[in-house]
């Protein structure tokens, strides 16, 4: 059984805690928070854009720490699960790796690509796993799409368009602070760049148009991912410009040689076949189940001593780089080379 210490008890820390209670190969043995109320189990003030509201938790069997250093020193913790705001990810992950712990860090891996590079180097030096919790590939509709594309069972990927648009979040001071999260073009859109990297690889260039918010962060963008002659032809629209009457929408159309995969969030996934048939796969699980699968994958990685490809730190770093290159393209109006 892999023993997890959660660092940061906000909305995502709560979701990881709830999901881990259903995990087959892991359990939470410790938590760390600077808030005495949360250490006492009063999570009633926690809320987010999905999942259950916070409640009073029984933490009697869990080690509780107010200092991160004490969590890192706990011998009953194998894996540090970092659920703090993004601007703290690099410092906290590097400290955990140097303390001899494996790390699962919530997306985005860091605020800047150079921070992510330092984290990856430290993981190699420490001979520990650095895994990044991008949950989208574990969500049933996206897990199905990833398997369909990567297996090649409907032929090669020809093109795709992804959508992820929300209303401006007001349920967390941190989530709305671009200095802590990178703004919508990083904190939100990185779900898309990570999934695009997973199924199509990293493009040579990107071209983006978009909108800048009052603080200078990119609030919304539409991007063409330029893979060169032969494609695939991939694009995405993402950001925080919707009205509160429609707080969240995501989806895709993925074009393969023998099928189209269509999902818009409001209707079930459809597989549109070349012979005219429409298939509606029977997908099991939901949002919290996806996080449980993610945690089980991380635990299996610790047991096997090998990072699962869906939790790859390199893939997460490349996704962050894409976000930054897209923001560069928005600001300059020019194509940006990814490198």
The secondary-structure element order is: EHEHEHEHEHEHEHHHEEEEEEEHHE
Structural class per helix/strand content? alpha/beta
Which strand order does the major sheet show? 14-13-12-11-7-10-9-8-15
Low-confidence stretches: none
Strand fraction band? 25-35%
What helical percentage do the residues reach?
25-40%
- Give me the CATH fold name of the largest domain: Dihydrodipicolinate Reductase, domain 2
Give the CATH architecture of the largest domain.
Answer: 2-Layer Sandwich
- Secondary structure: number of strands: 15
How many H/I helical runs?
A: 11
Overview of this structure, please?
- It is a single chain.
- With about 350 residues, the chain is an alpha/beta fold.
- Helix content is about 35%, strand content about 25%.
- It is built from 11 helices and 15 strands.
- The strands form 2 sheets. It has a 9-stranded mixed sheet. Strands 3-2-1-4-5-6 form a 6-stranded parallel sheet, sandwiched between helices.
- Strand 8 (about 205-210) and strand 9 (about 220-225) form a beta hairpin.
- Helix 1 (about 10-20) crosses helix 10, helix 4 (about 90-100) runs parallel beside helix 5 and helix 5 (about 115-125) packs antiparallel against helix 11 (about 315-330).
- The longest helix has 20 residues, at about 315-330.
- The chain starts with a strand and ends with a strand.
- The model has no long low-confidence stretch (mean pLDDT about 95).
């Amino acid at each position: 059984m892999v023993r997890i210490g959660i660092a940061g008890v906000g909305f995502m820390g709560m979701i990881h805690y709830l999901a881990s209670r259903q995990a087959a190969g892991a359990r939470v043995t410790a938590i760390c928070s600077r808030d005495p109320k949360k250490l006492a189990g009063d999570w009633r003030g926690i809320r987010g854009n999905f999942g259950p509201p916070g409640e009073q938790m029984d933490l009697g069997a869990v080690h509780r720490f107010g200092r991160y250093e004490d969590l890192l020193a706990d011998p009953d913790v194998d894996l540090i699960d970092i659920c703090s705001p993004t601007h703290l990810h690099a410092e906290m992950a590097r400290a955990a790796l140097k303390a001899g712990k494996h790390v699962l860090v919530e997306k985005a891996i860091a605020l800047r690509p150079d921070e992510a590079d330092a984290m990856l180097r430290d993981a190699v030096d420490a001979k520990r796993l650095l895994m990044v919790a991008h949950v989208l590939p574990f969500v049933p509709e996206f897990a199905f799409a990833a398997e369909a594309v990567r297996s090649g069972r409907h032929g090669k990927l020809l093109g795709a368009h992804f959508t992820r648009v929300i209303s401006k979040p007001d349920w967390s001071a941190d989530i709305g602070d671009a200095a802590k999260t990178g703004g919508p073009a990083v904190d939100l859109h990185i779900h898309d760049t990570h999934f695009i990297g997973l199924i199509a690889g990293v493009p040579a260039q990107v071209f983006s148009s978009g909108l800048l918010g009052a603080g200078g962060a990119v609030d919304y963008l539409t991007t063409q991912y330029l893979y060169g002659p032969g494609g695939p032809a991939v694009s995405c629209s993402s950001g925080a410009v919707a009205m509160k009457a429609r707080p969240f929408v995501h989806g895709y159309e993925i074009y393969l040689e023998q099928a189209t995969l269509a999902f818009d969030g409001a209707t079930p996934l459809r597989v549109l076949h070349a012979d005219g048939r429409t298939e509606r796969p029977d997908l099991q699980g939901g949002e919290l189940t996806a996080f449980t699968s993610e945690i089980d994958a991380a635990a299996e990685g610790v047991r096997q001593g090998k990072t699962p490809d869906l939790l790859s730190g390199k893939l997460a770093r490349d996704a962050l780089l894409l976000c930054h290159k897209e923001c560069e393209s928005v600001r300059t109006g020019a194509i940006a080379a990814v490198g």
